[in-house]
Structures are given as C-alpha cells and as structure tokens.
Amino acid sequence: MELSTRRARCCRGRSRRHAGFVDAEYRSCSRRTPAGNRDARSSSRWATSAWRRSPTRSSPRRSRQAVVIGDLGSDFTFELLNEAFLALRGGARLIAIHKNRFWLPAAGPTIDAGPFVVALEYAARTEAVVVGKPAPAFFALAARLLDLKPHGLAVVGDDIESDIRGARDAGLMAIQVRTGKFDPALLRGMPG
C-alpha cells in the first residue's frame, strides 16, 4: 500500500531498489497528466482510486507487507489512514518517504505527510523506516550513486530539519538558503 503522488514513478522505483526494498505486489500511485505535467490534485485522486481497486486491499486472505506513506495531499482521509492503521496492526511495516511537517505549494504552507506518519506511528505503536530526507541512509545512498564520499558533498536546502540537520547528521556539509521554508527562529538551536 503506497499513499504517494509527488515523485515520479521511475525515481521511486530506483530509490526503493537502492534502499533494498523488493515488493512484487507494489502498486504505484503516481501518474502524470496527459501533457506530462504534474497535477497533484488529479494525481492524488487517481492514486486513491487505484488503491481502492487494489486486489490486495479487497482480499482478506492477502495481508499487506508494508504501508508506504508519501505525499497524498488533501486526499489523506480518515478512511485511508484507518486502513493503513489496520494493515500496521496486522503486521505490515511502516515506511515513510519523509517526515516533513509542511511544504510550500503556490497556495502557501500546507501540511505534509510527516504528521500523518507520526499519527500512524503513535496509533500502531510502531516506528516508521524513513527512506528519504532526513534519514542518514538517504544521503549515504546519494553519495554512493554519485560515487563520492559524503564528506565531499554539500546539501543546499531551505528546510532546516530535513535538509540541513539531515545533511549534517550524515556527515555532509549543509548550506541553508533563506528562501522557501526558511524560518530564522529555527536557527537558534543549530550549531554554526
């Protein structure tokens, strides 16, 4: 079960393979519009519809091995979260693409997947495996794919939690830009 829409299908597949995940029943819940442009609202509706039609979802004999939480935007519903919760209670692993608190679409700050991941962790008494930022393994994978040592790389980002702290925790140089999600109040707790 994957609840995600904002990453290209090919990139998610590569990331999962490099992170060691193999799932024969994986169903991608992302698509591009006919013009090739990302349309988050139609993508999330399509993703939700595809997931609801999933044979694994409707068959009580087939249990889910993992719940993968990504970006579903306004289509995160109580029904979807409760089904994810039940799958976790049934033994599925919780995998999070990230745990960002919010993101910045054109409309302004919007809640991201992180709060939903935390809610599922709390309800199911489990801990998510985070495969994206700020997980150190994410940055190590990027270094490995570039065939470079982590200490020779720099991350440039506007998110102090996922970009800057994540990079530093993984041994990379971090460069904070003062655009986008930048909040000067968050700098107080950061070492130079």
Describe the structure concisely for a colleague:
The protein is an alpha/beta fold and 192 residues long. 38% of the residues lie in helices and 12% in strands. It has a four-stranded parallel β-sheet with strand order 1-2-3-6. The chain has a two-stranded antiparallel sheet with strand order 4-5. A two-stranded parallel sheet has the order 7-8.
| Distance between the ends | 41 Å
Flag low-confidence runs: 7-12, 14-46
Count up the helices: 7
Gyration radius, in Å: 17 Å
Mean pLDDT across all residues, rounded? 76
Strand order of the largest sheet: 1-2-3-6
The coarse silhouette is: globular
Which structural class is indicated by helix and strand composition?
alpha/beta
Order of helices and strands: EHHHEHEEEHEHEHE
What does the largest sheet look like?
A: 4 strands, parallel
Helix share bin:
25-40%
Number of strands: 8
Structural description of this entry:
It is globular and about 45 Å long. The chain has seven helices and eight strands; from the N terminus they run E-H-H-H-E-H-E-E-E-H-E-H-E-H-E. The longest helix is centred in the N-terminal third of the chain and has 13 residues, at 40-52. A four-stranded parallel beta sheet has the order 1-2-3-6. The chain has a two-stranded antiparallel sheet with strand order 4-5. Helix 7 (160-169) links the parallel strand 7 (154-157) and strand 8 (173-176). The chain is of the alpha/beta class.
